[in-house]
Amino acid sequence: MVPVARQFFSQEIDRSDEQIDLAKAALYIAQEEYQDLDPAEYLNALDTMAEELLERLPIQRYPLRVIHTINQYLYEDLGFKGNVNEYHDPRNSFLNDAIERRTGIPITLSLIYLELAKRIDFPMVGVGMPGHFLIRPDIPEMEIFVDAFNRGEVLFPQDCQAKLSQIYGQPVALRAEFLRSVTHRQFLARMLTNLKYIYLQQQDLEKALGTVEKILLLFPDIPGETRDRGLINYQLGHWFSAISDFESYLAQAPHAEDAPVIRKLLSQLGRG
């Protein structure tokens, strides 16, 4: 039986990308974990925070001044911070927890920042840099980035290159696509991918399966996710679902490097 929260999530993303309400969709993801969660409570919390922020804004809303004001409010007044010590705690990936606990990982803190910016009419967009999610003002020709995980630090492209090299422990060439804005669906898929790997590390296969299923609601044609769902179903003993996923994967990617492994698993399941 499909969880009610999954149905709400599916309804929310069943619209044009720009019409998807990121906060609502993220709260529906969390509602699958916390069945008594009331999304309206946290949407109201964001509204209240934005109202308080509006009172602090300077008369002249130059972008860097607005960013400074948001940073002062979020990190100094409210005490939000990146969760460095428990980075892989699944609670860091849920918007309700990030609001309540005032801590999270880059993408959840970025979402809070984006939602406040939207409510004060200062549009920003997510930037899916490898290894570390950023945001930036949605202003043409303005190449500044904000690191919501690190107290709203303002970065320029050369700073992003240095951060990439720091993350990967070796020099990394900055490519233009690393700093492109992400769509709403890509944003949600990245949130879910973080959760997926946390659950797989914890061997919580049922929850990992739920995250993969939601990723496939966003992007039905990603072969790797279909394969991963099959592998999780296989481990859970859901044989018919595993067969269906493996066959779909091989139809989508017949020459994939791991195709022989998947064919072997199908053979073990009597479909080789």
TrEMBL record:
Does Glycoprotein appear among the keywords? no
Q: Does the keyword Nucleus apply?
A: no
- Ranges where the Protein SirB1 N-terminal domain occurs: 41-192
- Name the InterPro entries for this protein: SirB1_N, TPR-like_helical_dom_sf, TPR_rpt
Which top-level group of life is the source organism from? Bacteria
Return the TPR repeat spans.
Answer: 189-222
* Record key words, sorted: TPR repeat
A Pfam family annotated for this chain is TPR_9
Family indicated by similarity: Belongs to the UPF0162 family.
In its UniProt entry, what is this protein called? Protein SirB1 N-terminal domain-containing protein
